Amino acid sequence: MDWVNTILQGVLLGGLYALFAAGLSLIFGVMRLVNVAHGDLIVLAAYLALVVTGTLGLDPLAALAVVVPLMALLGYLLQRLLLNRTLGDDLLPPLLVTFGLSVIIQNALLEIFSADSRRLQAGPLEVASLTLPGGLAVGVLPLLQFFLAVLVIAGLQLLFYRTPLGRAFRATSDDPAVARLMGLDNRHVFALAMALSLAVVAVAGVLLAVRSNFDPAIGPARLIFGFEAVIIGGLGSLWGTLVGGVLLGVAQSVGAKLDPGWQILAGHLLFLLVLAIRPEGLFPKVRG
Amino acid sequence: MNTNNQRITRRSVMAAGWASTLAAPALGQGANRPIRIGHVSPRTGPLAAFGEADAFVQEGILRAIGQGIRVGNRIHPVQILSRDSQSNPSRAAEVAAELILRDRVDLITAAAAPDTVNPVSDQAEVNEVPCITTNCPWQPYFFGRRGDPQRGFEWTWHFFWGLEDVIDAFLALWSGAETNKVVGGLFPNDADGNAWGDSRLGLPPALARNGYRLIDTGRFQPFSNDFTAQISAFKAANVQIVTGNLTPPDFATFWTQAGQQGFRPKIVTIGKALLFPSAVAALGERGHGLSTEIWWTPSHPFRSGLTGQTARELAAAYTQATGRPWTQPVGYQHALFEVAIDVLKRAERLEPRAILDAIRRTDYRSIIGPVRWGSGPVKNVAKTLLVAGQWKRRPNGAFDLVVTTNATAPEIPVGGQLELLD
């Protein structure tokens, strides 16, 4: 039963990693941009949610209704005004710019909100749990978080493969030059992709903020799991990202079960193993 | 914050400088060179909460000093050159070297955790500049710098408590409570966690000696997102007391998961994570009743030898000036400058050896209690008082830190009784 619990908790944790990763995977898939500020944007979303819950008196999940569109708008502007100018044949400029962005966001948050450790209060929901047969207790919040992750990824998948916008994303991803010839405005398409990515970041940020304390400096520590989930799942593949997140979560909790010192290591080992055996990830993006 | 603060410092220093130049002829002396005190602490980065009170404290100190302090028979204006370590040891070493070599400070000070205190002390030691530090348990300070207990250091001096004091304070805290004496330990794989969980000098042998059974699942990486393994082990062993040393986010993750997975200990006493009122307030109702080590509170019965403020007055002034609740570093930051100024006043000349001599002879009552080198566990360490207590939530959501045991330092008044969580 202990092992069932371990794996179950690992799967639920994987949901959070998948959410961290989905936004990264999406923009990498569309425009080959590695967003180093992703973790800090998650923290920014958490602070935004803190302000929204504080001023409007909403509970954290309701605050999503405000935070998601705000972050999406921020994403659009960020891409349109800044990141589009860095895109080109060279991967380095966007990498450097987002790195700078990461430093700026951390320090701006420190300046505005101080170094205090904060938390979004979700009341009794925080520790509510379901008792399953066999004495297993599963937190309602992790469960919710997992289903939100599945929902978000299913939503993105639908959007990518069933809508004109998704077609535009895929077209620009496959060949930006030809997409432009067909009348697509790449700058706009990229900005929409970033908007979408930050909408997902908003969901991840709110969930992170309910789950644990956060402060301005915590972003980068969260980023690495997102990256690993993307690589394990396969670059640019959305369902792969979910699978990657879940595998990472399970590897960590199984590692921790054997010895708590192996928790993070087990995740990294899985990541290296996948890189060694299948460098393109488990579910590389299908082309064409 | 940084620029703002430097502006305050610079302006206050200018004012002090003016005053002294104007006053100097009246005293029948020429203009004397200013004394430069270097100060390094984390203003930004993960440890920024420790440096939060710096600006406030320095302003108060400079105001109290006024036109200067008397060294020998001359009045010297005082400058405090404060630098941000960015919570980063390389940066701390860099700014310390700059303060020593370029700004030629007479005395260097540093505070808050080994990442800042150790590199600054190392720079001072090599460059032979007197150095006073605080706010870092003495073992990571001394052994982290490869100190030899027989020889000690020459130029670098530290005042704070040590691991043995935490252990005593925690045991005193638990001794009155009805528990099964089974303790769950959470020790991450970082400097603090390894020291606390050390099988020779840490909590494990002390707990065994006092009849506690420790469930220690082993070191884990900080910023873990999942504590299921630890929680399952604690549940299986019927753990009633949880202890350890965690960062605030790690503790919040653990405590939320413990609630979700139905683990309800009677006492939770954690180092580091529960130091700041903001971190505890962030836990909401689940912050009530958590316990921690206490180094300084407004109810400590001491006053500043420099400004004359009591602990309570200093804390109130901080809250009034910043609109924020008092924190434990407020007292220690203030004490650091108190001790530095006391040392400089007693120095016979403004010259490194004379200042060093004055440090050795320190016997001072500061806002955090007595500071005196010579009777500590090693040559360069003066031990300060440590007690333990519990956070209690007021109906309006604010938290009070109440001292519930003073067995380790009877001069500190007890504010209430330990309440069990469950």
Structural class of chain A: mainly alpha
Task: Output the CATH class name of chain A.
Answer: Mainly Alpha
Looking across the biggest beta sheet of chain B, what order are the strands in? 4-1-5-6-7-15
SS-based structural class of chain B? Answer: alpha/beta
Alpha-carbon distance between the two ends of chain A: 45 Å
How would the blueprint of this fold be written?
The complex is a heterodimer of chains A (288) and B (422).
Chain A: H1 2-31, H2 38-56, H3 60-81, H4 92-113, E1 129-132, E2 136-139, H5 140-162, H6 164-174, H7 176-181, H8 186-211, H9 219-233, H10 238-258, H11 263-277
Antiparallel strand pairs in A: 1-2
Chain B: H1 2-27, E1 35-41, H2 54-65, E2 69-71, E3 74-76, E4 78-84, H3 89-101, E5 107-111, H4 114-127, E6 131-134, H5 138-142, E7 156-159, H6 163-175, E8 182-186, H7 191-196, H8 203-209, E9 213-216, H9 228-236, E10 241-246, H10 248-260, E11 267-272, H11 277-281, E12 291-294, H12 311-322, H13 328-346, H14 352-360, E13 363-366, E14 369-372, E15 381-382, E16 387-393, E17 399-405
Parallel strand pairs in B: 1-4, 1-5, 5-6, 6-7, 7-15, 8-9, 8-10, 10-11
Antiparallel strand pairs in B: 2-3, 12-16, 13-14, 16-17
Helix pairs in contact in B: 1-2, 2-13, 3-4
Please tell me about this protein's structure.
The complex is a heterodimer of chains A (288) and B (422). Chain A is built from eleven helices and two strands. With 288 residues, chain A is mostly helical. Chain A has one domain: ABC transporter involved in vitamin B12 uptake, BtuC (Orthogonal Bundle). The radius of gyration of chain A is 19 Å and the shape is globular. Chain B has 422 residues and is α/β, with parallel strands linked by helices. Chain B has two domains: 2-161 and 298-382, Response regulator (Rossmann fold); 164-294 and 386-405, Response regulator (Rossmann fold, 3-Layer(aba) Sandwich). Chain B contains 14 helices and 17 strands. In chain B, the strands form five sheets. Chain B has a six-stranded parallel sheet with strand order 4-1-5-6-7-15, with helices on both faces. In chain B, strands 9-8-10-11 form a four-stranded parallel sheet, with helices on both faces. Chain B has a three-stranded antiparallel sheet with strand order 12-16-17. In chain B, α1 packs parallel to α2, α2 (54-65) runs parallel beside α13 and α3 runs parallel beside α4 (114-127). The two termini of chain B are 42 Å apart. Classes of the chains: A mainly alpha (288), B alpha/beta (422). Chains A and B meet through α1, α4, β2, α5 and α9 of A and α9 and α10 of B.
